[in-house]
Amino acid sequence: MTLEYRVMKIIEENLEEKVEFNANTDLRDELGLDSFAMVIIVNALEDEFGISIDAQDYRDINNVVDIVKSLKQYCPDLKES
Amino acid sequence: MNRDDFYAGFNVDKSLAYKYDFNPYYCSIESGLNDPIIIDGKEFINLASNNYLGLAADKRVSQAIALAADEYGASMCGTPIATGSMVILKRLERRLAEFIGLQDSIVFPSGYQANCALFMSLAQIDDLIIIDHYAHASLIQGVRLVGCKVKPFLHNNMNHLKKLLEKTAKYKRVFVVTESVFSTEGSIAPFDRIVNLCAEFNAIPIIDDSHGIGVIGRSGRGILEDKDIENFNGLYTASLGKALANAGGIISGKRELIEYLKYSCPGLIYSTALPPPVLAGIEAVLDIVDKEFSILSERMWRYKRMISECFVDNGFNLTEGEAPITSILIKNLEDCACMAKLIHAKNILVTPFIPPSVPPNESKIRLIAGANLSQNTIDRALDKFKEIAKELSLK
User: Fold this and answer.
1) Has the ipTM of the complex gone over 0.90?
2) Is 0.90 topped by the overall pTM?
């Protein structure tokens, strides 16, 4: 399972309703996630990867690609698959 | 700093209001909450107020208010810990606690203030607050002020809540916060299940029953009665400006904690107490609720059913609400503005909810039909909504 797929799965499981999205979909502007919805996703990522994401970092997150990039900084040992 | 630049930064974006030549907010209502109400000299059907039981303009309530104003004047000009502490306030606090089914309560100047003030006095930096995603702004503001870890859970989703509660070992104390009736859509929290989960994971449940008190439960006593919750081990807050048709807010719960808050809650101690006429007005409403809830409630629910059925039959897209609230889900902000204007043009007052009050793409128009409205008024409103459906070719 690629890291990108893992992240997408986490997002999917932590949305209020099922929606179509891809790695480049803007989570706020296109999926319409509000600040609490973003916090739900960040909390789920923190639990999944055992990390603590800095508030400023997740303000800069717009899509799955950004999340994967950020995760690699937090966990340099994370494998792509 | 250039002071002109400073003030120039506070512009409100009213582009949508200009585009549609219509602003539904801050309208000038010239009457009390009668049937009809008067706006800009015109008669309107009021489907916007939180006046569920229709008691805001009830003569018995306004007479009680007038008598109290006559006896005690406009204000006690003091905080509840000082000269605001008067006999009606103490009596009302006891009565509200009995009404809800809890040991004691404190009356605040507003529900928003009660919610904001509560968490500052209750929680600490090493605590965890788990809160429903769609909780009211006052609760969100309150929990954010603490500075502790805040984890929202998916709206009314017990699996998600349980998952979060399973990972709370590192926190000193855990609070689970939600509303009883989510007012933009009318969904009701499964609070009995939340209370059970809190018991299982040793967390403190906190419920805001602003749209539940005087509305749900066999005799209008709110969420605890509605869900048959006995010996409630958490905290309860509510606004007194909705079904109870006055102003103010309460925090209610165990006697020791309420006593502690009375001496430690800055939002209470440093704010002027509610004026005596308002306190008397709340007492008068409680008297009426005690005697007439079944009649008022039957009318309120009948109107809600009639409105929902009419909307479904005529192609409006509704949210699934269990409370006496009907919400048309419009999603798109501009479509919502358009619909609100159409409804307003038919002389019906409703409440449009647009972001940031609701999540993006979740714009809604909310209707609440108070029990003071006549059957004839509801029939006329439904006819007008049928006309709107036809004009928009919804069916």
Assistant:
1) yes
2) yes
